[in-house]
Amino acid sequence: MPRQYDHQKVLATTVDAWGRTLWLICLDAELRPRAYGRPYPEPRTCPYDALLVIDNDGAVREQLLRDMSLRVTHFDALPNGRFVVQGYNGAGDRNAQIYGTDGRRRRSFAMGRAVEYLMADRRHHVWSAYFDEGVYSDPISAAGLVRWDSGGNHQWEYSPPKGVEYIDTVYALNVDDGVAWATYYPTFPLLEVRTDGGIRLRRTPVVAPAGMAVHGEHVTMLGGNRQSDRLHRCRLTESEAVLVEEARLTLPNGAPLKRYARPVGRGRHLYLRGTSPRQWYMTDAQAASRPAT
């Protein structure tokens, strides 16, 4: 994150489908304690204006998103300079919003409760994945994995083939143009869903991975099997992911990286950060970890 923003409160951060690092900042926020974990920033007023900082390989620009009414937990960039945000809203179930190129809200819609992932691709597809609290209580979240168009219209939801467990919680999600890959509790299959209607399930040797990168006939899964810093490189067959080799995840200086926030999987790239929202790292299906920004 550029140093001039070090004193600002970051509401959320991600890496988008174009490889740009995004930070959503509230210019008037305070840290609120929570029962578990680190304090979180909360806007002092609502609605509020948020500053979006975009780092595109060192070229930094700002965009103001006006009159935000959500306490944002997830957001992503859409094609044509738009953005989608999701969060908590005390005013009802419309917990997702789309902002136009002018930074003003264009639409609000219900995305369901307990969103674990929100990711968009470059072809006007938006994917939302859920954890158990929403799956068992909300009709939108019940499918576990849902696809929307970039206007916020529901397009598709997951329904497992006969004899396959339903989604309880999505543990890892990877989104590339026209395809999403997911692993989910309780059986942790590798689910491949294509926007042309193709669906495939494969057995995997990794239980509860935290993230993954997919490239060609290989998938690299991070964590799982109670080893948060283990990378599992697998070869894809028609019916399973076969373990080829394992490696340790390290920082560029060789130090281990065992504690990290929710990874962002974009095709062959897997983006990670530690407990701070200000520094991202990137690894891919065949390379070691290196700084992203």
From TrEMBL:
Domain of life: Bacteria
Protein name (record): Uncharacterized protein
Native species: Streptomyces calvus
